[in-house]
Design goal:
Strand order of the largest sheet: 1-2-3-4-5-6-7
CATH class of the largest domain: Alpha Beta
Order of helices and strands: EHEHEEHHHHHEHHEHE
CATH topology of the largest domain: TIM Barrel
Number of helices: 10
Radius of gyration: 18 Å
Helix content: 40-55%
CATH superfamily of the largest domain: Metal-dependent hydrolases
Largest sheet: 7 strands, mixed
Number of strands: 7
Number of domains: 2
Length: 283
């Protein structure tokens, strides 16, 4: 089975990726991607650069964003917005507010890490979103933490993040906004379509994923990311078939972050498992 020629989630240095937007586009093009989305977290600051790079290469790029939202007791539920007008003032202002909330949360988590005996400086991102990967790297790379990190068997910043900065870990702090309905409304008001990202990254059980697809559909979401690099065949078919029943879009991605990322390092690294995607206006 040939790999898909679209890849609808990727990240640049504007959020938690390692490459510039133009370099992300170039690498995707070299991998055979024909339709790409740059979906940086809570920012559209890289979209214009990505659009320009895509035009030069003759590939299609859809303006997009990935919003971190709160859903009931779950945090960091990601809602992708595709085909939106990334210059709409209401969107730009809302994203600025969400990034300010991210900074406040990052400071709380940095203080919590210090309270646990780890030293770090909060990275200056120059207005770009700051997230847990940036804090984890700052703590991992601080020389004063080297002996402790070695003693705890933490070999990468990602392992430090998992040990200290995920829900239930000692330095984790909750997000406060936006809620999923607010994220959907914001995307659609900017002319875009809203898609629930990587359902089985957020949830573990089939029944819970199906219930959430149904509930988000009732909230007005446009689709779900059925095809994802870590989804199994069974998970893919479950989400794709429920979306088909509900008339929802089904998108897919490798969630590219960096060439050396342990999971998200290769474009087109996801499988359709025999189902046809329903990209609708995204295509």
């Amino acid at each position: 089975m040939s790999a898909p020629t679209f890849d609808l989630q990727s990240h640049s240095i504007c959020s938690d990726g390692a490459l510039t937007p133009a370099d992300v586009v170039a690498l995707a093009h070299a991998a055979g991607v024909e339709l790409l989305a740059l979906t940086d977290h809570d920012t559209v600051s890289g979209v214009d650069e990505a659009l320009a790079a895509a035009r030069e290469l003759g590939m299609r790029l859809v303006p997009a964003v990935e919003l971190s939202a709160v859903d009931l007791e779950r945090e960091d539920v990601h809602i992708l917005g595709y085909g939106l007008d990334h210059r709409v003032p209401a969107l730009v202002d809302a994203l600025e507010d969400f990034r300010a909330d991210r900074v406040a949360r990052a400071i709380r988590m940095a203080d919590a890490l210090r309270g646990l005996g780890l030293q770090l400086e909060v990275p200056d991102r120059g207005g770009d979103p700051i997230g847990r990967p940036h804090l984890a790297r700052a703590a991992f790379e601080h020389p004063a933490n080297a002996a402790r990190i070695a003693a705890e068997g933490l070999e990468t910043p990602s392992q430090l993040l998992e040990a200290y900065l995920v829900p239930g870990a000692p330095a984790y702090q909750r997000r406060t906004r936006p809620a999923v309905p607010e994220a959907i409304e914001l995307i659609q008001a900017a002319g875009g379509v809203a898609v629930w990202a990587h359902p089985f990254w957020d949830l573990d059980h089939d029944a819970e994923v199906l219930e959430t697809v149904d509930r988000f559909a009732a909230l007005g979401i446009d689709g779900a990311e059925a095809f994802y690099v870590t989804h199994t065949r069974e998970q893919t078919l479950l989400v794709a078939d429920r979306c088909a029943e509900l008339g929802l879009l089904t998108t897919g991605s490798s969630d590219f972050h960096a060439p050396d990322h342990p999971l998200f390092h290769a474009f087109r690294a996801f499988d359709l498992h025999g189902r046809e995607p329903a990209l609708g206006p995204v295509a």
